[in-house]
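Hi R.,

Quick one: here's the L-2-hydroxyglutarate dehydrogenase, mitochondrial sequence you asked about.
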Amino acid sequence: MIHTSKRCLSKEDLYFFDKLPGEGHQPQKGVEKIFGPLRAERFAKSLYPVLSTPEDVFDVAIVGGGIVGLATAREILNRYPEKTVVVLEKEDHVAAHQTGHNSGVIHAGLYYESGSRMAHTCVRGAELMYKYCEENDLPAERCGKLIVACNEEEHAQVEKLYKQGTANGVKDLEIIYKDEIKKLEPNVDAYSALNSPNTGITNFWLVSQCLANEIRQSGRGDVKLSFEVLKVNQVENERHVLIKGREPGQNGPHLSVQAKNVITCGGFYSDRLSKITGGNAEKHKIVTFRGTYYQLKPEYRTIVSRNIYPVPSGGGIPVGVHFTPTVDVRRGHQMIVGPGACITFSREGYKFFDFKLKDVLDFATNKPFWEFVLQNFSLSLGELYRDLFKFAFLKSGQRIIPNLKGDMVEPSFTGVMSQVFEPGGVAAGDYILERKCLNGLALNLRNAPSPAATGALAIGEMLVDAAAEDFKWK
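And here's the predicted structure, written out as C-alpha cells:
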C-alpha cells in the first residue's frame, strides 16, 4: 500500500504556476455589456416594454430568481414566442443565495446515477453553459479537475467514478497515478486520480445577470425584485392564479401578479412554496447547510492550476474540501479552498449564530434528516468541527496538499446549500418535480442542489417539457 506523505515542505519546495486559469485574458465583452457605463440607461430601456399593472395576466410566473428560475423563464420565451413570463424574486437582486455563493464549477457529470435527471442535465447543461458563456462573452474555462485518492483504499472510488462518468457520457476521462499526477500538479500528493479535462469554471452570478437582462429585453418578460410570494390562489371561475406578496421584512404595500400558470424554483424555500401552491410540503422538507470558504493568499494561489477534489466522503453530502480557481469577476482571481457542510439554524444562515425558530423547528421535526445524522454521525460531527475551527478545516485540505499551512490561507466567502432527505436517511440524489398542483396550474421543483447551476439551462428545458405536458401548451 502506498501512503500519502504528511511532510510539510517549505515555501522554497513549492511549485508555483505562472498564473491561474483565465489570467492574462482580455476583459470579456459580456462583462462590459452588463456592467458598462451605460448600464443604467440600458436597464431602464429594458424594463420599458414589460412594465405591467396588477390587472395584467402573464402566461407564466416563475417564483425564484436564481439561475434555474431565470433559465426556465428564458427557455419559455425562446420556445414559445407568443408567451409572456414574469420572474418573482424575494431579494433585491437575482442570484442572491445558492447561485451567487458557490464554487463556480462547471461539473462534467461524474457523480450522478446513470439515467437520472441530474446525470442528463449536468452533462447536457455543461455544454450548454460553455456555449452560452461563449455566445455572450462571459468568462468560462475548461481548466479540468482531478479527483484524488490519497491511498490505495480510496482508489476504488476513483474507478467507480470513472465507470459512472463514462456511463453518463462524460468525455476524455482517464485514471492517472502518482507520477502522472505530479507532472500535472507537483504539489498534490496522491495515490491516483480521475482526470476530468472537461470540468471547468465560470461565475454563475454573472451568468444570471445576463439571463435576467435577456428576459427583460425580450419585450415579453419581466423580473420583479423584492417580491416575497406569500399566497398563490386560483382565481374563482378562472383558469389562472393570483399571486400575492410583499417586500421582505415589510408589512406593506401588498403586491400582486396574475398568471395562467406557476413554476416554482424556490431553493431554500421550495417546501414552503409547495405548501402555498397546494403540494405536499411535508414529503420533501428542506435542510440547509453552510459552506465556509477560505482562499489562498496571493503569493500562494498558484500552487495548483485546476480543480482538485477528494473522492466523495459518503452519505450523499458533501463532496469534501476542495481547491478551485475562480474567474476574474466579483472576487478577482482566487484559488478558493472549501467548503464544509455544517447544518444551519436559519435557512439563510451565512453565520454560525444566525437563528430562526421556524427554520430550526422544520429540521428538528424532519425524520429523514435525523436518520441521516445517526447513520453518518462522525461525518456530521466532523463538519461541525471543521466549521468552527480553521485548523480542522485545513487538515482536510492537507490530505491532498500536505504542504498547505494556516498562514497560506485567509477567509473568503460563505455559501448555503439546500438538500432534501429521503426516508431512511438518504440525501435525495435527483431533482424532484411536484406536478399538477393547484388544480393543474402549478409545477414545483422540490430538490435542486449541486450540480443545478451547471445544469441550469438543461433543467430549464426539462421543466418546460413538464410544463408543456401539464399545462397543455401547444
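Confidence is low (pLDDT under 50) at residues 1-9, 40-51.

Cheers,
M.
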